[in-house]
Known about the structure:
By secondary structure, the protein is of the alpha+beta class. The protein contains 19 helices and 14 strands. It has helices spanning 4-11, 34-48, 67-75, 100-110, 116-121, 123-136, 150-164, 174-192, 202-206, 209-242, 247-251, 256-262, 272-303, 305-319, 328-333, 335-347, 379-383, 386-389, 429-446; strands spanning 51-56, 59-64, 81-82, 147-148, 264-265, 268-269, 353-357, 362-364, 367-369, 374-378, 447-450, 461-464, 466-469, 474-479. Strands 1-2-10-7-3 form a five-stranded mixed sheet, sandwiched between helices. A three-stranded antiparallel sheet has the order 4-14-11. A two-stranded antiparallel sheet has the order 5-6. It is globular and about 65 Å long. The N and C termini lie far apart (75 Å). Protoporphyrin IX containing FE binds next to helix 13 and helix 19. The site of protoporphyrin IX containing FE (HEM) has 25 residues, from helix 13 and helix 19. Heme binds at residue 426. It is a peripheral membrane protein. Keywords: Endoplasmic reticulum, Heme, Iron, Membrane, Metal-binding, Microsome, Monooxygenase, Oxidoreductase, Signal. It is found in: Endoplasmic reticulum membrane; Microsome membrane.
Amino acid sequence: KLSRSQSAQWFAKDIPGPQSYPLIGSTHLFLGSDERTFGVVNELFRKYGRMFKLSLGTKTVLCLSDPELIQQALTTSSCQDKAFFYRFLELDYGLISSRYTDWKLYRKLLNPAFNQRILVSFISIFNRCSETMVARMAKEEDREQPFDVLHYTAQCTLEMVCASSLKSDITDDPQARDVCGGIEKMCSIMSSRLFNVLLYSDLLFTMTQRYREMQKLRAKLERVVNDILYGRREEIAKQRHAQPEDEEQYRKPMVFLDQLLHMQRAGQELEMQEIESHLYTIIGAGSETTANQVAFILLMLAMHTEVQDRVYEEIVSIYGAGSPELTHETISAQTYLERVIKETMRLFPVAPLIGRETMETVRLGDVIVPAGVTLLINILTLHRNKELWGERADVFDPDRFDPGQYDARTQHPFSYIPFGGGPRNCIGYRYGMYAMKIIVTQMLCKYRLSTPLTPSDSLGLSFAVTLKVGTGHRIWIKRRA
Ligand code: HEM
């Protein structure tokens, strides 16, 4: 009888892939800087196309590039466990990493916290946080050296998530400001384990300097999160004491933290460890992704000033001059901005690598895949595949998403998945779209953006859970008349 890893290797014997050696697999290919490693990964996806196998230590990873296979992997119920490397996030109970069986209940109970009515009620919060961010940026006006706009968007999106989903105002809190850089650094340490087989062992990892650094960063984050969590818990207890909740009130959708604190499993509240895991997940997933994505959007607008002018014209035509009055209706009317966001997410999807694990034998295309095999999807190379996006796949062209040009009948639905796909897609995609639209609108109302970077420059992309740029999202800002 074959062991799980032997049967995983055996089924893949005829599938093409790079040279692999005992114990290390193909990880020798990934030595060097993060930028080089990500470059090699992307090159492999481009070279092998449809499907190839990659051995990471003793793990067999099936890499998928074909939208049909990706759709199967993301939607089939027996592929809904997360890949082994999500364990490195150390968020075992949060939505992103949890086991499929636990996840089903979590997702069902947390979905209402992202319903349309709750999101619309966040617009004023997002607007206030964006205005604060733009006001902070005044010190960068007309500077000779460009600055990395990510520093500002990271603080802004963290404040947004805390104020909306966690009901906690952390504006200008120095502890919280520290946390932004901390989350970014933690992501970089966690993702560095993926292509370094020596760090798969928790024991070896705990002996490294990176681990110690991670513990320190986590302790800082814990202080902020605990203040929020225990503060809100006490408030709810006081409210309950003053006015006990009736059945109807209890069933009303609440914001994320309240929904979590009311969540019950078999009549019992969740363990504190589970609640904390959910909180870290939502803070990381909600702020890191949106901050990086919006930084890419601002960089693209700075690079393509004709596109920026069109977005600005649309803003003026909807809001007139002066401070914009943002509502669900006006934001929905910003259709050109939406195309710009979609096109940026095509070229620079901030969650570029996602993975699943087969839970039982499953057929993917013409291959029978046993249980325990990791499936890896590279959203960045999928979105730049010339067979799916044409010869100009690498060119930034928001009109690609003009409803007159975009043909949903010929474009495979899984050729564009910036928010993932299937049941474990992004729970916050509408939240993220609102937040990004509002930040960009506030930025462009006040500033005209430019950058020394050009479309032909290499941005030095790398993977650190989210997509990173070596050059930084460097822009200049000039106040509009
Ligand atoms: C531009 C913004 C965003 C992008 C590009 C993005 C992207 C993604 C992707 C690709 C996934 C799937 C991960 C996988 O398959 O393993 C995901 C999942 C998730 N995202 Fe987002 N996300 C964004 C914003 C947000 C926001 C604002 C929140 C919350 C406030 C959020 C919370 C989550 C959660 C909790 C999951 C796990 C869902 C589950 O498995 O049930 N994301 N996101």
